[in-house]
Amino acid sequence: xxxxxxxxxxxxxxxxxxxxxxxxxxxxxxxxxxxxxxxxxxxxxxxxxxxxxxxxxxxxxxxxxxxxxxxxxxxxxxxxxxxxxxxxxxxxxxxxxxxxxxxxxxxxxxxxxxxxxxxxxxxxxxxxxxxxxxxxxxxxxxxxxxxxxxxxxxxxxxxxxxxxxxxxxxxxxxxxxxxxxxxxxxxxxx
Length: 190
Ligand SMILES: [Zn+2]
What we know:
The chain is an alpha/beta fold. It has 2 domains: 143 residues, 3-Layer(aba) Sandwich (Beta-carbonic Anhydrase, Chain A), CATH 3.40.1050; 34 residues, no CATH class. The chain is built from 7 helices and 5 strands. A 5-stranded mixed sheet has the order 2-1-3-4-5, with helices on both faces. It is globular. Bound molecules: zinc ion. Zinc ion (ZN) binds next to loops. Zinc ion binds next to loops.
């Protein structure tokens, strides 16, 4: 059982991590030293590359991640996290960082739905959702251009009715191989 092995490995490692006080080098506060909140993609290639490429370490920033660095809804959990970071955790700038070669770029909802069916999700379930007003296909839809997607997210944050007007919102796209950033929206100019 692969999953059981994975979990027991994690727990065994964790025990020695705590025992040997390896956490000490990570000690910091809940307030970001660099006073910013970053929304980026959950892509595995960005896990260490992104912080290194922008020179942030533990304690420096608030990070929010999801598939595609997308803000699906102005009153969804991503936007709420950004507002909490700004009002409660002293973030003074917002960075939206998409990346090239993102899985959400050109993602085919139909192919995911096919896989769901393969895993035993019934046609009936999908139909029930559809009758309840949930269009699973639309809901799973990604984006076609990462630049446009980042611009759109910047816009959602910038124009949000609960967002303070003096918070710059920047939009960037990172290369998941080299870590090079391309500026899409300079929040100081908007
Ligand atoms: Zn991605």
